Fold this sequence. Notes:
- The chain is of the alpha/beta class.
- α2 (34-49) crosses α4 (78-101) and α7 runs parallel beside α8.
- The protein has helices spanning 5-12, 34-49, 61-66, 78-101, 115-118, 120-135, 158-168, 223-234, 248-251, 270-278, 289-297, and strands at 15-20, 53-58, 107-112, 139-144, 173-178, 183-184, 195-196, 198-199, 240-244, 259-261, 283-287, 307-312, 319-323, 329-334, 367-369.
Amino acid sequence: MTTSPTRQAVADAQRIVVKIGSSSLTTTKGGLDAERLTSLVDTVAKRVAAGGQVVLVSSGAIAAGIAPMGLSRKPKDLATQQAAASVGQLTLAHAYAASFARFDLTVGQVLLTADDVVRRGNYRNAQRTLNRLLGLGVVPVVNENDTVATSEIRFGDNDRLAALVSHLVGADALVLLSDVDALYDGDPRRSGAKLISEVNGAADMVGVDAGSTGSSGLGTGGMASKVAAAKVACTSGIPVLLTSSDNAEHALGPADVGTAFAATGTRLSARRFWLAHAAGANGRLWIDEGAVAAVVKRRRSLLAAGITAVEGAFDSGDVVELLDPEGNVVARGVVAYDAEELPTLIGRTTHDLPPEQRREVVHADDLVARK
């Protein structure tokens, strides 16, 4: 396979985030697959020995807890999932610690919930901790904190978590490992599906059916979640390589396997990335075409005159989505008014407003256009 600039960037990455899926670490009946975990650790340790820094985003806590708890399959209710995670997280952490110890490498476990990246203070704390671990030569093993996460604050899959962590630590590349060797234009289990080697932009994804679910029944994210995660990383300046865990050695070596997603955007500041991808939106502002042009094309502040409707209950300082007349989300930003203040202001020019309300609804410095 010809080495593209994207693959070369992954191969040369000094700091890299590697995400491994549940199906690649556990058996279909539950419980860790020791051979697979050992093989993964061997590959990661080799990259570290070559001078790289690796953050491992690992699924598998719930699946690892299935067999020890005497369950026959992955539980569907949240309480039992959390119970399985409490058992599985300990099992998983111990297995990683013991395996990395063969190379005199120390492991640090970092458990995150969506709240940890939605809340600005928690985001900074997580960033500080991960950077310090890497600076001390520790291999951070990150997982969603399934033990306390609820349906309202879950990431939903560790692919998105891996994309967020990639920006959090300033990674040079993201590698997504699962049970599928690459992205195909259709279901790879059907004849005629074609492997997509390179994705250099949205045009390369036209006509691609990424599906929605995994094949093992153990994970929560399928190919669709991996493509979505790749988009989050790529539009923020981070190249992505997607392949199977069986190809891990090549993925963390010459990067000559799977599908390579080129970085299509510039690296955002931590605050702007948080606005674009991590923060939860508490409301929506519908804006007219003139406001869309000002906000998206000219990167101007949103004024009350450009707003046509307000949706949701939010306070000043919350994150809201901005929608065009067709209902498409065109930007996200920090609103400067409470929801109940805006209805009497919408559509009015700044000069028509009382002096105490002559300010931007969303300042340009607090706006991120959707790519």
